[in-house]
Amino acid sequence: MRTHEAGALHGQVGHRGPAWLEAPDDVNALVPELWSLTSGRSDDGVLEVGGVRVTDLAREFGTPTYVLDEDDFRTRARAFRTAFEGVDVYYAGKAFLCTAVLRWVTEEGLRLDVCTGGELAVALAAGVPPEQIGFHGNNKSRAELERATDVGVGRLIVDSFDEIDRLVELTSELDRSARVMVRVTAGVEAHTHEYIATAHDDQKFGFSIAEGDAIGAVRRILDAPGIELVGLHSHIGSQVFDTSGFEVAARRVLALHAQIRDELGEVLPELGLGGGFGIAYTTQDTPSTPTELAEGLLGIVQHECKALGVDVPQLSVEPGRAIAGPAMHTLYEVGTVKRVPLDGGAVRTYVAVDGGMTDNLRTALYNADYSCTLASRRSDAPPVLGRVVGKHCESGDIIVKDEFVPSDIAPGDLLAVPGTGAYCRSLAHNYNHVPRPGVVAVRGGAARIVVRRETEDDLLRLDVGV
C-alpha cells in the first residue's frame, strides 16, 4: 500500500468508493439485512425502531446514543437457542454487557461467556446463575480465579501453564474445586481480520495441538487435585460467515479428544466449538442463518466423531456478535459538512458528527466497514459519496469510510449507523475527555435507559486533584 500523509484509511480507497458499494436508487431506503428487525421509516421519513421515532429519542436522551432493539435481541438469541437444540449456547459478554441485557439472555435460555473479573461482576449483579457462566481469558489473575471458584462458575477455560499452576495453588490453599476446559489452538486461520483470528498458532490464546502443548496441559490438569477436566475448547476467530473453517479445526480437536481417551483413559464429556459468527455491516457481507450454521457445524462434529469412533460430547457454541450486533444502531447529530476536492475533479463529502472513535473504535482498530442513513427526515436530493467522521483530534477518526448520503445533508440532521451492538459500547473510551454515550432500549413504543450517559462530573470524579 502506498503511503498517504493523512493515514492508510484515507489513502486506500478510490475516489468513487470501493467496488462493492453501489449508488442507491433511493437514498432513503433501508437495507433490511443491516438493520434491526423493528426498524423502518415513518411516512415523513423519520427512522423508527421499536415503535419509537429517533427524533424523539434524540430530544429526550441526546446524541450520540446507542439505540438497542430489545425484540431484535431476544429474537436472535431465541433463534440460536432453537437452531442449536441440545447444545449449550453462550452469549459473549464482551460484545455488549449490562445487567438488563443479561436478564434477557437468561430469560431466553442462553448461558454466558465472560473474560474478566469486571464482566463476572456484572453477571453476578444481574443474577446470572454462576453455574451457567464460562470464564475465558488468557491472563486471569489470582483474584479473578479466586472469585470464580468462590461463586461456583460453571467452567474455567484455562489458557496457559501459568494459569494451571495458579489454579492448582489456589484450590489447594483454599480447599476448593474447579471445573475447567483446556483452550486449544488447532492451527486454523479464520478468514477474518488478523486481529480477530484466534486459532492459528502465532497468537496469544490457548495451547497448540501441533506443538504438543495441549496434551501436556491435559496431563498436568489430570494429575492435579481439586481440578476437574471437563473438555476441550477451540475458537477459530470472529466475524466468521460460514462453517468451512470449523471442519479442519473440529477434526484436529476431536483427534486430540480421542487421543486423551486412548492414551490417558479419560473420556471428556464436553467440547466447546467457539463460534464468532458474523453479521452484515454493509451490503458486501453475507452471513449465514443460525439454522445453516447449526446444520453445518453439527454435521461436521457428527462426521468426525463417527470417523474416530467416539461419542459426540455435550457441545457448546458462542455466537459472539451475531446476537447483539444487529440489534443496535448509534444515533448521531451532524455538526459540519465539508465537500473536499480530490484529484481529477472528484469531491468527497465529509460529514462530521458529535461522536466518533470514542464510541466506535472498530473502524480505526480493524479498518471495519459500516453503513449509515439520514435518520431525521426524507430527502429528495441525489446521493453523493460521503465519509462520516467524528469530532476527535485524529485524522483516523472515521466511523463510516464510504457510504452514499443525500447531497443536501446538513448540520442538525440526525444520522444513524447500524450494526453497532457488538463491541462499540464495550470498546468505548474517553479520548479527548469525551463522556461515553448511554444505551437506550426500545420496545413496543417505549424507550428506557439501560446504561446511562456519562457526564463530565463522571470524568472529574476520578481526578484526585479536583
Can you tag this structure with a few keywords?
single chain, alpha/beta, 21 strands, about 475 residues, 13 helices, 2 domains
Fold topology:
Elements: H1 8-11, E1 40-41, E2 47-49, E3 52-53, H2 54-61, E4 65-69, H3 70-83, E5 88-92, H4 99-107, E6 111-114, H5 117-125, E7 133-135, H6 142-151, E8 155-158, H7 161-174, E9 178-185, E10 207-208, H8 213-222, E11 227-234, H9 244-264, E12 270-275, H10 290-308, E13 314-318, H11 321-324, E14 328-341, E15 347-353, H12 362-366, E16 373-374, E17 383-389, E18 398-406, E19 414-418, E20 438-443, E21 446-451, H13 456-461
Parallel strand pairs: 4-20, 5-6, 5-13, 6-7, 7-8, 8-9, 9-10, 9-11, 11-12, 12-13, 15-17
Antiparallel strand pairs: 1-2, 2-3, 4-14, 14-15, 14-19, 16-19, 17-18, 20-21
Helix pairs in contact: 3-10, 6-7, 9-10
What is the assigned CATH homologous superfamily of the largest domain? Lyase, Ornithine Decarboxylase, Chain A, domain 1
Mean pLDDT: 92
Structural class per helix/strand content? alpha/beta
Indicate the radius of gyration in whole angstroms. Answer: 24 Å
Distance between the termini: 47 Å
CATH topology of the largest domain: Lyase, Ornithine Decarboxylase, Chain A, domain 1
Main sheet summary: 9 strands, mixed
Question: What is the name of the CATH class of the largest domain?
Answer: Mainly Beta
* Binned strand content: 15-25%
